[in-house]
């Protein structure tokens, strides 16, 4: 009976007052105790995963070609030097895609972004230039068939390799040396941190090289048709041999140019008309086919070559397949 009765002078129900007291205590506790926010989860763009996977396949496939040519001393003709240059460029391109994925999600910084972008630009530029060099070599092997196997041809090949790699390295160094859009986003292209002017130069250069390759392959096709016609006349079977040889040559050239254009033309044209304000999905959708060209190159230029086929079989199983002809594939074979 000594307890003092608690008087409710507010006129409100006691349950309501108890709930309000609990709320006030909770507010006070939450005010004094700092709230720990959960760290945002790392969200990986599926397109980046696809590009990284493509880069892994490119690296593995072209590493085989590089090892075969480097390991086999007999593969030192100008044709194999150019095929090796193409495989090395595509290998670096694949590694660039992998490193770009790693740096984009684990080591994010402006320096790493510039370095990986420069590596990708340099390697893909060297890849396209190597394709042009192979086209020039095939044309010279047909047009100057009698003098092709000479020291002058080897020297000219080394000059081409020096020029194409020097040019490609310079193009890759441009973003690193300051020609980028990190300080002014309004100048960005569809591929950040490349500027709009940078991608325009790369795209126009690609169109020029594609036009040059097209012209050279047209001349190659004419030479092959003329040679096939002359051989057919000498052996008196014009209707069959001439048709088969011509069709095979034209089909091969169409495959080479068609694959090259289908892979690179969408991204080239898109880079000319678009800028950083366009949705990134368009950039990914046009850039991905361009990487497929580096996957297809070893199949077209390396694994179809009989000398490389024999070298690959010797490395893998120590034998030469019976289906491979003993005749070496000449540079003039298209």
TrEMBL record:
InterPro entries: GPCR_Rhodpsn, GPCR_Rhodpsn_7TM, GPR12, GPR_3/6/12_orphan. Keywords: Cell membrane, G-protein coupled receptor, Glycoprotein, Lipoprotein, Membrane, Palmitate, Phosphoprotein, Receptor, Transducer, Transmembrane, Transmembrane helix. The keyword Nucleotide-binding does not apply. SMART domains: 7TM_GPCR_Srsx. It is found in: Cell membrane. One of its GO terms (cellular component) is plasma membrane. GO terms for molecular function: G protein-coupled receptor activity. Its main location: membrane. The chain crosses the membrane at residues 47-70, 82-108, 114-136, 156-179, 199-218, 250-269, 281-303. It is a multi-pass membrane protein. Residues 61-301 form the G-protein coupled receptors family 1 profile domain. Belongs to the G-protein coupled receptor 1 family. PANTHER family: G-PROTEIN COUPLED RECEPTOR. This is G-protein coupled receptor 12. It comes from Erinaceus europaeus (Western European hedgehog).
């Amino acid at each position: 009976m000594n307890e003092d009765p608690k008087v409710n002078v507010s006129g409100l129900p006691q349950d309501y007052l108890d709930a309000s007291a609990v709320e006030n205590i909770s507010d006070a506790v939450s005010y004094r105790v700092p709230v720990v926010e959960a760290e945002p989860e790392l969200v990986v763009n599926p397109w980046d995963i696809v590009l990284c996977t493509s880069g892994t396949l490119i690296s593995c496939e072209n590493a085989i070609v590089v090892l075969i040519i480097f390991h086999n001393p007999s593969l030192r003709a100008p044709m194999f030097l150019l095929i090796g240059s193409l495989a090395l460029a595509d290998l670096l391109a694949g590694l660039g895609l992998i490193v770009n994925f790693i740096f984009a999600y684990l080591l994010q910084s402006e320096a790493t972004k510039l370095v990986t972008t420069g590596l990708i630009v340099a390697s893909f530029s060297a890849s396209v230039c190597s394709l042009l060099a192979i086209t020039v070599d095939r044309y010279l092997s047909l047009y100057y068939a009698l003098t092709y196997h000479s020291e002058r041809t080897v020297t000219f090949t080394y000059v081409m390799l020096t020029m194409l790699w020097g040019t490609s390295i310079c193009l890759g160094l441009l973003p690193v040396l300051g020609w980028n859009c990190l300080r002014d986003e309004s100048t960005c292209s569809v591929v950040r941190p490349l500027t709009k002017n940078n991608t325009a130069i790369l795209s126009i250069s690609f169109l020029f090289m594609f036009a040059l390759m097209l012209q050279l392959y047209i001349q190659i096709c004419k030479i092959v048709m003329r040679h096939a016609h002359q051989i057919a006349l000498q052996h008196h079977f014009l209707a069959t041999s001439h048709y088969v040889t011509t069709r095979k040559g034209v089909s091969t050239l169409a495959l080479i140019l068609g694959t090259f254009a289908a892979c690179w033309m969408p991204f080239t044209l898109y880079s000319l008309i678009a800028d950083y304000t366009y949705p990134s999905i368009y950039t990914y959708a046009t850039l991905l086919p361009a990487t497929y060209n580096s996957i297809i190159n070893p199949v077209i230029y390396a694994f179809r070559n009989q000398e490389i086929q024999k070298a690959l079989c010797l490395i893998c199983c120590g034998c030469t397949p019976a289906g491979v002809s003993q005749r070496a594939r000449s540079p003039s074979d298209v």
